[in-house]
Write a structure and sequence with these properties.
By secondary structure, the protein is α/β, with parallel strands linked by helices. 40% of the residues lie in helices and 17% in strands. The protein contains twelve helices and 13 strands. The chain has helices at residues 15-26, 61-68, 89-105, 143-161, 182-185, 188-195, 198-206, 226-238, 256-263, 272-284, 307-312, 321-338; strands at residues 5-10, 30-37, 51-55, 73-76, 110-114, 129-130, 166-172, 174-176, 213-216, 223-225, 244-248, 266-269, 303-304. β4, α3 (89-105) and β5 form a beta-alpha-beta unit. The chain is globular and about 55 Å long. The protein starts with a strand and ends with a helix. The structure holds NADP nicotinamide-adenine-dinucleotide phosphate. NADP nicotinamide-adenine-dinucleotide phosphate binds next to α1, β2, α3 and β8.
Length: 339
Amino acid sequence: MADGLTVAVTGPTGDLGIAIVSALERSRSVKLIRGMARRPFDPAERGWRKTEYRQGDVTDAASVRDLVAGADVVVHLAFAILTASDATRELNVAGSRLVFEEAAIAGAERICYASSVAAYGFHHDNPDWLKEDVPARGSPEHPYSQQKAEVEGFLADTVRRHPRTVAYVFRPCIVAGPEARTMVEEIPYYRVEEAMPAPVARLVRAFPVLKPVIPDPGTSFQLVHEDDVARAFLAGVRGVGEPGPYNLAGDGVLTIEDVATALGWYSVPVPRPIVEATAEVVTRLPVVPDSVAWIHSVRKPVLMRTDRARRLLRWRPEHTSKATLQAMVAAHRAEVAAR
Ligand SMILES: NC(=O)c1ccc[n+]([C@@H]2O[C@H](COP(=O)([O-])OP(=O)(O)OC[C@H]3O[C@@H](n4cnc5c(N)ncnc54)[C@H](OP(=O)(O)O)[C@@H]3O)[C@@H](O)[C@H]2O)c1
């Protein structure tokens, strides 16, 4: 096992970045972490001691070259998720290509890339439980899924052309936890509640009859805890097992009803034909908000087996999907109470 690794990280300030860099900070195998994103950020505020941070954009060749110079491992996280569209191809596709190419040219031993369960696509002919041997085809009507699949394709091509560099490709399901709260924050009601004047929000919370109702299409999904994802990345950074694709998910499956119950909200079932019809209409509309394309993700459950990560990385998720949901909700509640 290599010691004293220098690790370059794109997107260290995001939901996954915070958890992954925190895990790298704790690892004795890692000597130096170099992070880059666009916002101003001070690693010392997180108590990080091995991390140097610089502002930069993954679409800028000079910034990327500077970031990966001398790195043993490059962790690539920077990506637009909910806003993925043709407009994000520059960041998601061109930016990723640049990071991989520059990492390989600079002689990095490993690239650890955060792909996604979405790379498989939401296809009705996919098996109910996805293993890594199912092709990552993406779904053309879902730009995030399509871009994740495309990026995986040229990462494979990059390491074929640069045999000194290998790639660990992680495909997490929805990541959640005390830091990773995008999932709950993107539920439309949350946004509404956030915008309410405090006395009104308190009133709504006090009367059960006013509690929010969220639609439940009945699709099962998995959650994975941010710290479990971070431990898988750490294994990849250290070169445990072998390179290749790895599904990451917590044990157990959930539905929106579970999310509503955990939040103390209500859910109403949405009949499947309505979900299908809405998705069909959305596909045909010329102009819809980018995030509306996510309707396609509830048409077909995408559930993953994680045997490969368990066998080769010796990875065991410490948190079930349900425990992960509870951890995220507890952190959300604590923040709302503090406001
Ligand atoms: N969260 C999930 O549930 C989930 C699930 C599966 C896979 N993933 C994948 O995991 C990765 C990280 O996700 P996340 O949830 O941590 O995303 P996030 O919270 O949105 O964070 C994205 C990070 O990328 C940075 N970034 C964005 N545009 C950039 C640019 N042009 N140049 C440099 N940095 C840029 C952001 O910082 P600035 O905005 O300051 O630049 C931030 O640090 C993504 O590839 C995502 O597809 C996430």
